[in-house]
């Protein structure tokens, strides 16, 4: 064997030995770290018994049943509320239609009222004019009566007195 071949074999053997040593050190390091971890965190409490797990599961199943019943109750209440909202919406729609009709009727009545008020003002003005004319006519009638009475007394002879101035 030549010297180069021998050097190569020695180098390869040294590299192989170093690799095996590194792997061995890594395994030992992991085992030592696991031992330290186990010593640092000892298991003081015992694991939960299977009966405790079953009891807890039964309690959760009962709780699930209660929650399901409550959800069913809430669903019924929601259905009732939905029906009430639909009824209220229908009533609001009917109320809105009635309000529109009443608004139209009110506008018509307001127009009629304005017309009647203007007619009433005209009638009041005519009544005032008629009252004034009646008062004038009453004054003229009273004046005519006084004038007629005055003429009647002026044209009527005075009654004769007996015995004075004789025949």
Question: How many beta-strand segments?
Answer: 0
Shape label: rod-shaped
State the end-to-end CA separation.
220 Å
Q: Note the beta-strand portion.
A: under 5%
Helix tally?
Answer: 2
Task: Supply the helix-strand structural class.
Answer: mainly alpha
Tell me about the largest β-sheet.
none
Unreliable stretches (pLDDT < 50, length at least 5) are none
Summed over residues and divided by their number, the pLDDT gives a mean of: 87
How much helical structure, as a percent, in the residues?
A: over 70%
Radius of gyration: 65 Å
What would you say this structure looks like, in words?
This protein has a domain at 1-36. Helix content is 86%, strand content 0%. It has two helices and no strands. The protein has helices spanning 3-40, 50-155. The radius of gyration is 65 Å and the shape is rod-shaped. The model has no long low-confidence stretch (mean pLDDT 87).
SSE topology sketch:
Layout: H1 3-40, H2 50-155
Task: Provide a concise account of the structure shown.
The chain has a domain of 36 residues. It has two helices and no strands.
List keywords for this structure.
2 helices, single chain, mainly alpha
């Amino acid at each position: 064997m030549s010297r180069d071949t021998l050097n190569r074999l020695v180098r390869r053997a040294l590299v192989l030995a170093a690799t095996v040593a590194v792997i061995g050190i890594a395994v030992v390091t992991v085992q030592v770290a696991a031992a330290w971890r186990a010593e640092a965190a000892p298991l003081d409490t015992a694991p939960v018994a299977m009966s405790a797990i079953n009891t807890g599961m039964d309690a959760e199943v009962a709780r699930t049943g209660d929650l399901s019943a409550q959800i069913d109750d809430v669903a019924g209440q929601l259905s009732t509320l939905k029906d009430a909202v639909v009824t209220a919406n229908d009533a609001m729609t009917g109320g809105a239609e009635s309000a529109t009709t009443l608004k139209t009727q009110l506008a018509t009545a307001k127009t009629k009222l304005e017309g009647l008020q203007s007619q009433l003002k005209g009638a009041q003005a005519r009544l005032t004019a008629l009252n004034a004319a009646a008062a004038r006519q009453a004054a003229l009638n009273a004046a005519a009566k006084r004038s007629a009475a005055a003429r009647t007394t002026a044209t009527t002879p005075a009654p004769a007195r007996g015995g004075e101035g004789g025949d």
